[in-house]
Amino acid sequence: MFDNKEQFKKAFLSKLEMSVGKSFEETSPQDQYHVLGNMIREYISTNWIKTNQVYHSTEAKQVYYLSIEFLLGRIMGSNILNLGIGDVVEEGLRDLGISLDDLESNEPDSALGNGGLGRLAACFMDSLASLDLPGHGCGIRYKHGLFEQKIVNGVQVEYPELWLQNGQVWEVRKSDLSVEVPFWGKVESFEDEQGRLRFRHRDAEPIMAVPYDIPVVGYQTETVNTLRLWNAEPANVPFHDDIMRYKRETEMVSEFLYPDDAEDSGKILRLKQQYFLVRASLNSILNSFRKKQKDIRELPNYVSIHINDTHPVLAIPELMRILLDEEMLPWEEAWDITVQTISYTNHTTLSEALEKWPVRLFQPLLPRIYMIVEEINERFCKELWERYPGQWQRIEDMAIIAHDQVKMAHLALVGTHSTNGVAYLHTEILKKREMNNFYEIFPERFNNKTNGITHRRWLMKSNPALTGLITESIGDKWKVEPPLLKELEHYKDDAAFLEQLEKVKHENKVKLAERIFQQNQIKVNLDSIFDVQVKRLHAYKRQLLNVLHIMYLYNRMKEDPSFRPHPRTFIFGAKASPGYYYAKKIIKLINTVAEKVNNDKTTNDYLKVVFLENYRVSLAEEIFPAAEVSEQISTASKEASGTGNMKFMMNGALTIGTMDGANVEIFERVGKDNIFIFGMTSEEVMNYQANGGYHSSEYYMLDRRIHEAVNQLVNGFFPNTNGMFDVIYDSLLIENDQYFVLRDFDSYVKTQEKVSNAYQDKKGWNKSSVVNIANSGFFSSDRTITEYANDIWHVKPVNSPIIK
Ligand code: 26V
């Protein structure tokens, strides 16, 4: 079907007519997308079945990646790339007058994630399959992914996301594999025939979990793994008075993805989602295991279960329940198996993001699971007591249940054999500070796995021009071995190569400029520096620092007509959690500043501000290839890793950033001349936090630039914004600027000046760009996944025949 262009065209046309019942001329791009999608899925299915057969019959250990989020983005383009059918499809469609790009744009993003954590899970799925590793994703099939953002009068407005509205080509419903998940009810104890104490969950309200499987195609291999997403549906319960309430509440469980919320809203529903994912996934994992292996005590040798952050941490008590209540193992043995089977990744040290569940919600919803958590806690506290007799405070700090709350991170640390951070610095902070108590007891459990991104989507698919240039220069082995990108360094003084690189960047800038004009009706200067900050909106990510710098540039240009820096286009993209008041004000501020500076004729040749609404994976794929400056300006110690930083680097942008998260490792690789580092170190930040001594008002009083810009937030400088930015002003001056925006301002301004100066030497800039691309191979998620596979999961590639 995809062997040659003529065959493809024939198959495409005949399927198109058969499935939509229209003549070719009458079909819509929507119809065409669906038909092509179905053709590709059918094409995949042979290898998918084959891969599953191999997994069913092999003794090889399997890994299950449990995540409450998988932020896949569009699926078709990635499948076309990995299957190696791009040329045939593109040329075949072109003969029919169809552009593959246009056709792909009919696919809605699969947006089942908030940001970094969910996108990491998606990159991992791509790497697992491409490395022929037996890795299975387990998640929830939310009816509505992350909300769609519209900007109305500069303000974020949220709309429900509707990725399933026109039908999903990539998923396969498997109702025969449905699993019942019980909630509520009570636990009864009884004695069985052998006189053993047993437990029974009675009067529960069951929910049906129905799996939808999505194939995950590896790059140039026959491996097709599975991402299994669970859908919540009413179980077959007797008709009762409240059947409508039951139906509604059941469907709610997989209705919405939670936007990482600043508020406590919908807590119980979120806990339901977490247990729903865990119960269904473990049931299906254990079913596969039992079909192959007889002895449950062998579980850790055949199965590895990974929990992505604490959201799936109930896998620990759930596996204990299975081993105790179903397999009837003694506690100690069950505990040993559980710890050996499960591993955990921590993604943040921010205390407000660490999950805690009130016992009053937890216990009635999950009565048997709560009993088990209580016992885990009691046994753990007893061990602590033996180790630290009399140290009540320490024991209280480390307990899993304390002050009527269940601390999910503590459960994860105690109930798994491996805890990893997501960048070197982050892991060090976990060990030395945030989780130091636990590190003291379990030092061997802590390890680092620096994040990565799939270079297939983030370079090969999204930046074909750069991919072509790289391949012309160093051949194409880097595609399966990204560290080989290092060979590009030989070209850093090659004038012809640098010129080509500049041309590629320029073409990508032209495309992004078209998108900006289409969405925002703003004409940007193609010779301006494209300076980009795209990521979720959070105070610690300090979009505000970026904005204050823009205001300063504007003020200085207004004041001093001889001050005209190299033209810049500041591009933003960011969603704020709907309940996060401050973050929404920052979005309004960015748009307000944009309105002012873009319309000032005296400055707007030099300064443009663009806020691109509805930042998402597919938009990101248009942005990274065109970026020249990558803004990674979080307060040091706060950003666990960041992964956007890696995408920018791989596409040749230069980073301006703090020594935070994976920026530290980017710095180590490219060297100080090819990155712009500023601001306090994490040590300095943590010292301030521990010992005090920071007074933001001093910076406001003593620095004219800060004084002026901060005053402009509240003094009517922006028309019709009376009182609108008071919270921002207060966060800086009344609340003593928690994230040290004013403290780092001067350093940031000076470093931005260095950026502008460096850009004057275009050759030198391009050279730095080459060094960035050449050293980005380390940040391929293939490296990250190889490390997880070797050090944590102990899984090996399963050799399905390879066509590499
Ligand atoms: C969640 C919340 C929710 C409540 C309000 C404050 C807040 C702040 C942060 C978070 C994030 C939770 C976990 C997370 O998404 N971490 C991100 O994981 C990425 C992949 O490892 C990593 O690159 C990012 O640095 C990290 O923030």
Describe this structure in words.
Its EC number is 2.4.1.1. It is built from 32 helices and 25 strands. With 804 residues, it is α/β, with parallel strands linked by helices. It folds into 2 domains: 58-74 and 109-451 and 787-793, 3-Layer(aba) Sandwich (Rossmann fold), CATH 3.40.50.2000; 455-683 and 740-779, Glycogen Phosphorylase B (Rossmann fold), CATH 3.40.50.2000. Strands 1, 4, 7, 8, 11, 12, 13, 14, 18 and 19 form a 10-stranded mixed beta sheet that branches. The structure holds ligand 26V. Ligand 26V binds next to helix 6.
Give the N-terminus to C-terminus distance in angstroms.
Answer: 20 Å
CATH class of the largest domain: Alpha Beta
CATH homologous superfamily annotation of the largest domain: Glycogen Phosphorylase B
Arithmetic mean of pLDDT:
97
Q: List the bound ligands.
A: ligand 26V
Rounded radius of gyration (Å): 27 Å
Helices and strands in order:
Layout: H1 5-20, H2 29-57, E1 62-66, E2 70-73, H3 76-83, H4 86-95, H5 100-104, E3 110-112, H6 116-130, E4 135-140, E5 148-152, E6 155-159, E7 172-173, E8 179-183, E9 186-191, E10 197-202, E11 205-217, E12 224-234, H7 243-252, H8 267-292, H9 299-302, E13 303-308, H10 315-326, H11 331-341, E14 342-345, E15 356-358, H12 359-365, H13 367-387, H14 392-398, E16 401-402, E17 405-407, H15 408-414, E18 418-421, H16 424-434, H17 436-441, E19 446-448, H18 455-461, H19 464-474, H20 495-520, E20 529-534, H21 543-559, E21 568-573, H22 581-598, E22 607-611, H23 617-623, E23 629-632, H24 644-650, E24 654-657, H25 663-670, E25 676-677, H26 682-691, H27 696-702, H28 704-712, H29 726-733, H30 741-760, H31 762-774, H32 781-793
Parallel strand pairs: 1-4, 1-13, 4-12, 13-14, 14-18, 18-19, 20-21, 20-23, 21-22, 23-24, 24-25
Antiparallel strand pairs: 2-3, 5-6, 7-11, 8-11, 9-10, 11-12, 15-17, 16-17
Helix pairs in contact: 1-2, 1-4, 3-18, 6-32, 10-11, 10-13, 12-13, 19-20, 20-31, 21-22, 21-28, 21-30, 27-28
The chain binds ligand 26V.
